[in-house]
Amino acid sequence: MRQEKVFAIRFSGLYPLYVKKVESKRRSKDELDQVIRWLTGYDADGLQRQLASDHDLETFFAQAPAFNPAAASIKGVVCGIRVEEIEHPLMRKIRTLDKLVDELAKGKAMEKILRR
Predict the structure, then answer these.
(1) At what angle do helices 11-24 and 89-105 cross, to 10 degrees?
(2) Which bin fits 26, alpha (ψ -120 to 50), beta or left (φ > 0)?
(3) Could you tell me which Pfam families the record lists for this protein (predicted)?
(4) Any bridge partners for residue 56, and if so which?
(5) Beta bridge partner(s), residue 10
């Protein structure tokens, strides 16, 4: 999929897919929200406002209050691509979120997901 198409995906449309993925692996929506808030700096109300909007991923990440600097330490493969090798900053943020959702769904401990 071309980058422009990925950037145009509505966050509110992607979020239910993330919820379905983590809940199918016995993780909770609250844990998912915690991971998203840790990465982006949104508080609970800010995240809910994003979900209620029609913002695309580009806007979602552009409006993120404080992208977590610890995200730079996130490594691994998502969709066959190494996250740490992605050059485009927005695509790297999107794939970083995907990686964290994957880690949550795979049962990784929250302390490790949140790089504590």
Answers:
(1) 30
(2) left
(3) DUF2200 (PF09966)
(4) 10
(5) 56
Residue pLDDT, tens place only, 36-72: 999 999 999 999 999 999 999 999 999 999 999 999 9
The sign of the dihedral angle between the CA atoms of 81, 43, 15, 3 is: negative
Sign of the alpha-carbon torsion through 112, 33, 56, 79:
positive
3-state class (DSSP) for residue 42: coil
For residues 81 and 72, the answer to whether their CB atoms sit within 8 Å is no
Phi, psi (5° rounding) for residue 79?
Answer: 55, 35
pTM exceeds 0.85 for this model? yes
Task: For domain 3-113, give its CATH number from 3.40.50.720, 1.10.10.10, 1.20.1070.10, 1.10.8.290.
Answer: 1.10.8.290
Q: Domain-by-domain residue ranges, the chain? A: 3-113
**DSSP E strands: which ranges in the chain?**
77-78, 81-82
Residue by residue, DSSP assigns 2-21 as -HHHHHTSBHHHHHHHHHHH
Compute the distance between CA of residue 40 and CA of residue 101 in angstroms, rounded to an integer: 13
